[in-house]
Automatic annotation (TrEMBL):
<feature type="binding site">
    <location>
        <position position="135"/>
    </location>
    <ligand>
        <name>substrate</name>
    </ligand>
</feature>
<keyword id="KW-0460">Magnesium</keyword>
<comment type="pathway">
    <text>Amino-acid biosynthesis; L-leucine biosynthesis; L-leucine from 3-methyl-2-oxobutanoate: step 3/4.</text>
</comment>
<feature type="binding site">
    <location>
        <begin position="76"/>
        <end position="89"/>
    </location>
    <ligand>
        <name>NAD(+)</name>
    </ligand>
</feature>
<keyword id="KW-0464">Manganese</keyword>
<feature type="binding site">
    <location>
        <position position="106"/>
    </location>
    <ligand>
        <name>substrate</name>
    </ligand>
</feature>
<dbReference type="InterPro" id="IPR004429">
    <property type="entry name" value="Isopropylmalate_DH"/>
</dbReference>
<dbReference type="GO" id="GO:0003862">
    <property type="term" value="F:3-isopropylmalate dehydrogenase activity"/>
</dbReference>
<comment type="function">
    <text>Catalyzes the oxidation of 3-carboxy-2-hydroxy-4-methylpentanoate (3-isopropylmalate) to 3-carboxy-4-methyl-2-oxopentanoate. The product decarboxylates to 4-methyl-2 oxopentanoate.</text>
</comment>
<keyword id="KW-0479">Metal-binding</keyword>
<feature type="domain" description="Isopropylmalate dehydrogenase-like">
    <location>
        <begin position="4"/>
        <end position="353"/>
    </location>
</feature>
<feature type="binding site">
    <location>
        <position position="224"/>
    </location>
    <ligand>
        <name>Mg(2+)</name>
    </ligand>
</feature>
<keyword id="KW-0560">Oxidoreductase</keyword>
<comment type="subunit">
    <text>Homodimer.</text>
</comment>
<dbReference type="GO" id="GO:0009098">
    <property type="term" value="P:L-leucine biosynthetic process"/>
</dbReference>
<protein>
    <recommendedName>
        <fullName>3-isopropylmalate dehydrogenase</fullName>
        <ecNumber>1.1.1.85</ecNumber>
    </recommendedName>
</protein>
<feature type="site" description="Important for catalysis">
    <location>
        <position position="142"/>
    </location>
</feature>
């Protein structure tokens, strides 16, 4: 099969972890006889430096012209003082919006070898963690208008708007219920309906959609409670569906209960199922350029890419198994390293996983 993929390495550790993702993609393509066509493009700070634009037109074109997109991460202190529309992060929000990638799927699975790396009590971890956060990605407070910093009565005010339409909630809720049907048949909808009107609408729409799925259990949690329950009883969740901001926060929390932010992948899909795949973490400027980042989140994002965009389930499984085998041999990047294990660099971890596929 021909696999045409646009690659957006981005900033900080983005290029480092993407390099390892590609290494594994090449190994799996060789093993299964697929032809890889990789097209690299600029996004974020890297694009700002070269093109004075965090999302050049050429990048949007190359993404649309591919069957899937693999992204590293964007951002860093070098660009932090730029106006909002020129920051690297606006390139990321821009590509999500332009491709209408409304559904951000973030599986949170405790890999058996990483049980000890969790920050949770071992009796809680032992009950297993296997949930998926479905985060609405192209609306909510990251996109709502009006927004800005204004002058009002002689003082500055900062303003953002959390806004959802019925249709926006319906489509992401439907995806959550469909996903639950193929899993443990439970949806937890996370909102703040006790104080926010936008959350009241969210809850009403989720309840309406739930009527189409009588076999799926529906639970509602306020986001503050959800953040607590995620560490108290992570084993009891199946599919969590929530808005852009809440999903962003809860999924980083999920990273540390399963070992490290550096291990969690994601897929962002539109209604035509064009997918952008990226680790859930950012550009990690504190460790960039040192070859110590954990590439597993990106490598598992490659597995999601093969399964979701190309239907290559066997290849995706082979990558997941290669990750588990490598961890099983005791190889660990710094973020998940414990006494008695074998410390490896980002590129060595990529080499070992590629060797196991
Ligand atoms: N999808 C994206 O491109 C995202 C971009 N960002 C941007 O990244 C920059 C840094 O943001 P932070 O808040 O520091 O979040 P971050 O996710 O980059 O890092 C948070 C912490 O996790 C660690 N970490 C992250 N990924 C890791 C990996 N693969 N291996 C080992 N450790 C890892 C970092 O070293 C840091 O201590 C900012 O400019 C932010 O806007 C943040 C989140 C997502
Ligand atoms: C620019 C941010 C919204 C990126 C982020 O934190 C994420 O998507 O997880
Ligand atoms: Mg985030």
């Amino acid at each position: 099969m021909e696999l045409k993929i646009c690659v957006l390495p981005g900033d900080g550790i983005g290029p480092e972890v993407v390099r390892e993702g590609i290494k594994v993609l090449q190994a799996i393509s060789k093993k299964y006889g697929h032809k890889l066509i990789l097209e690299e493009a600029l996004i974020g700070g890297a694009a700002l430096d070269k093109e004075a634009d965090p999302l050049p037109e050429d990048t949007v074109f190359k993404c649309k012209d591919s069957q899937a997109v693999l992204l590293g991460a964007v951002g860093g202190p070098k660009w932090d003082n730029l106006p909002r529309n020129l920051r690297p992060e606006s390139g990321l929000l821009g590509i999500r919006k332009k491709l209408d990638l409304f559904a951000n799927i973030r599986p949170v699975k405790l890999l058996p070898a990483l049980q000890q790396a969790s920050v949770l009590r071992q009796d809680i971890v032992a009950k297993g963690i296997d949930l998926v956060v479905i985060r609405e990605l192209t609306s909510g407070i990251y996109f709502g208008e009006p927004k800005g910093i204004f002058e009002e009565k002689g003082e500055k005010i900062g303003l953002n708007t959390m806004r959802y339409t019925e249709k926006e909630v319906q489509r992401v809720a439907r995806l959550a219920f469909e996903t639950a049907l193929r899993r443990k048949k439970k949806v937890t909808s996370v909102d703040k309906a006790n104080v926010l009107e936008v959350s009241q609408l969210w809850r009403d729409v989720v309840c309406e959609v739930a009527k189409e799925y009588p076999e799926v259990e529906l639970e509602h949690l306020y986001v503050d409670n959800a953040a607590m329950q995620l560490v108290a009883r992570p084993y009891s969740f199946d599919v969590i569906v929530t808005s852009n901001l809440f999903g962003d926060i809860l999924s980083d929390e999920a990273g540390v209960i399963t070992g490290s932010l550096g291990t969690l992948p994601s897929a962002s899909l539109n209604e035509q199922k064009l997918g952008l795949y990226e680790p859930i973490h950012g550009s990690a400027p504190d460790i960039a350029g040192k070859d110590i980042a954990n590439p597993i989140a990106t490598i598992l994002s490659v597995a999601m890419l093969l399964e979701y965009s190309f239907g290559l389930k066997e290849e995706a499984n082979a990558i997941e198994q290669a990750v588990e085998k490598t961890l099983g041999f005791g190889y660990r990047t710094l973020d998940i390293f414990r006494e008695g294990q074998k410390k490896v660099t980002c590129s060595q971890m990529g080499d070992f996983i590629a060797m196991q596929v």
